[in-house]
Amino acid sequence: MTPRRTASLDELRPQDIVRDDDTIAYFDDHVPEYSVERLELAAKLINERKGEDSALVDIGCGAGNTLHYLRQETGIERLCGIDVSANLLERTRERVQAETHLGSILDRELVEHLACRFDFAVVAAVLHHLIGKSRKQSRQYAALAVRNSLDLLRPGGHLIIMEPVFGPPLAMDTVFWVKKGLTRLTSRRVSLFGHWNNLGPPVVSYYTPEDLLAMVRAADGAELTDTLVEEQPLPGGVRMVLSRADATILARRA
């Protein structure tokens, strides 16, 4: 599958990056704790590459359970969490000893403040939550997040991206715009069936594995190291028209 062309980041001006208050409010209210089992591969990749004094940043750290898990599994103690939710950062500090920063990976000022400090940057299930006014702008946000995450790394550091990926892209365009429309009408979840049990908030912009790889390849100084795509089941006849997988991408900063 050929990835869609991602509009040049030169077209994305700082004033175009708008704070997504709806998504922040959603996570503040729900305080989600995603399963740490999805990070087993990330921990393995880190253990194969870590040094004695490695530092790790979790971008979109949520309630801190992922940082806690990575500390347990890798032994890395120099930890940092970044999140747009003050409530979630408070939960992180209660759970694990880590430096925390309130802000977005799209915020260039924050990125420059933390630049070149880390050996590992983990971006787990974050990119599809970076929502702009359109799918095109959301893609630009995701591509910018990849580039900014690399900037947090020291030369030789590794970026680990973990994302649920879906296809075909046209179906994900539809999900994006349906969610956009429904969230203007209601803040409640709108059930459908099976895996697709939520067409309400939060709005999401899902990508294909090829889309993610294109974002990494377009980032200056990124050396693609490993890619793993694990197909995931979908219910009933849904699998006849849609695909779902979990993608893990490892890139090294030159």
* Low-pLDDT residue spans: 191-197
For the biggest β-sheet, the strand order reads: 3-2-1-4-5-7-6
Number of domains: 1
Question: What does the overall shape look like?
Answer: globular
Write down how many β-strands occur, each being a DSSP E stretch of 2 or more residues: 7
What is the CATH T-level topology? Rossmann fold
| Percent helix | 25-40%
The named CATH superfamily: Vaccinia Virus protein VP39
Radius of gyration: 17 Å
Summarize this entry quickly:
This protein is of the alpha/beta class. The chain is 36% helix and 23% strand. 39% of the residues are buried.
Summarize this structure as a short list of keywords or feature phrases.
alpha/beta; 254 residues; 7-stranded mixed sheet; Rossmann fold
Give a description of the structure.
By secondary structure, the chain is of the alpha/beta class. The protein has a single domain (9-166, 206-253), classed as 3-Layer(aba) Sandwich (Rossmann fold). It contains 8 helices and 7 strands; from the N terminus they run H-H-E-H-E-H-E-H-E-H-E-H-H-E-E. A 7-stranded mixed sheet has the order 3-2-1-4-5-7-6, with helices on both faces. Helix 6 (135-151) links the parallel strand 4 (118-124) and strand 5. The radius of gyration is 17 Å and the shape is globular. It starts with 20 loop residues before the first helix and ends with a strand. Residues 191-197 have low confidence and may be disordered.
